[in-house]
Amino acid sequence: MRDTSLLRTRLHRALACLPLLAAGGLACDSGPAPEVKPATQTAAPVATPTPAATPTPPPPPLPPSPYPERTGQDPFDPDGIEEEGCPNGDWCAPAKIAEKLATQSSGQELGCPTRLMGHPQKSKADERQFKGISLNPMMQGRLRKIATAEQRAATKDETICCYHWFDYCSGRPLLADDQALRAPLRPGSAWLSGHVSEDSVAALPLAARRHLAGLWLRDAGDEHAAVAAFARATLELMAVGAPPELIFASQQASLDEIHHARSCFSLAALYADEPAEPGPLPALAPRDGGLVALARNTFLEGCLGETVAALAALRAGRSCQLAPVREVLATIADDETRHAELAWATLAFTVHHGGPAVAAALRELASSIGDRLHDASPEPELPAELTREVLAAHGRLGPAALATARSDAWHDIVVPTLELILGAAEAADTADAIETSDLS
């Protein structure tokens, strides 16, 4: 059985046991949930539980989004699913500055490089020159020809080049004004979980080690920010009267993310010349908007982000040849699966109590994401010393594998699970309507 089928089955069985969905026709199987095994083990097939009642009819397909595309978006180079919930933004700079981030295979249009990528090492001068764009090694930037022409007309500067950029990321981000926040990094060892050693790392070329260190530092920053994201989610759950089971699970998830962050900082130190730790992280107030806002935020940050994170960690662990890295990935895969269960349970709560308004908002959001799912994205270039085989052996998915994991998670897990929840709610509403009609 495919890993996506196992993960979907586990999520659906967890949802089936929720009292909130009992009225929707879902059957609860009291047996243990199928284990999504990381690393190199092969999980035994698990049969999907047979419904005890008449199967719920499939819900209607998700309608197309009624909202227009992003203003000024280049129709020849649309944005991709990879940036959903990840750091992203727009950036304009003179061509001579943009050239410093150009990929080796980048073409030229309008006197500008068409593709950009980040790098793991940066100086204070870099931060001043590249203010407004990420320098993380997995950053990708694409030339926006319409925005470039508009900016040149406005500034009378024919050397200006404008880009849209995003970082690859997964897991629950800490969003503020649609931008993902991370704490700044500084030298220090406060967040290390202990010394990690692996002889094969010392044999890697310096450029490869630095690149891998940058990737683990990025993950460490994301996991650290997720601690705050779950703390805020707990307050938002309490603001809508969520049951204690959801609040407890959200608090537990914050503790999980502390362990993930420490593990990632420790792995980064394994590859880097010196350890790093997070600095101050801005405090964010809970977001308002009631059940509709909670549903949209949970779907984007949790149902999508945590599901992708679980699948990506599972797949990264399979090819990993380093025991300490494989152990971290195994823990993260299991924890992120539980976090995905929490997200989907929260979504079921919002649909149950929010009714058609919540369901409509979720369909619109899912449709807008699905419309951009297949947009092509460039693959960031790797140091010559770091082949894709070495990358996989050290527990890292390449950009193509990560994009495949996102696509698989969307088609095989996210869409069917959303339809399961919305279909159960619609079935329950229909049953209520029939009962009310019979009584009248």
Question: Can you describe this structure?
Answer:
By secondary structure, this protein is of the alpha+beta class. The chain folds into 2 domains: 313 residues, no CATH class; 81 residues, no CATH class. Helices cover 52% and strands 8% of the residues. It is built from 12 helices and 10 strands. The strands form 4 sheets. It has a 4-stranded antiparallel beta sheet with strand order 1-6-5-4. Helix 1 packs parallel to helix 12, helix 7 runs antiparallel to helix 8 and helix 9 packs antiparallel against helix 12. It is globular and about 60 Å long. The chain starts with a helix and ends with a helix.
Give the strand content: 5-15%
Tally of helical runs: 12
Helix amount, in percent?
Answer: 40-55%
Largest sheet entry: 4 strands, antiparallel
The radius of gyration computed from the alpha-carbon positions, rounded to a whole number of angstroms, is 23 Å
Q: What is the ordering of alpha helices and beta strands?
A: HHEHEEEHEHEEEEHHHEHHHH
Spatial gap, N to C terminus: 49 Å
Q: What structural category do the secondary elements indicate?
A: alpha+beta
The tally of domains stands at: 2
Please mark out the parts with pLDDT under 50 across 5 or more consecutive residues, or reply none: 22-27, 39-85
Morphology call: globular
Oligomer: single chain
Compute the average pLDDT.
Answer: 78
Compute the number of strand runs.
10
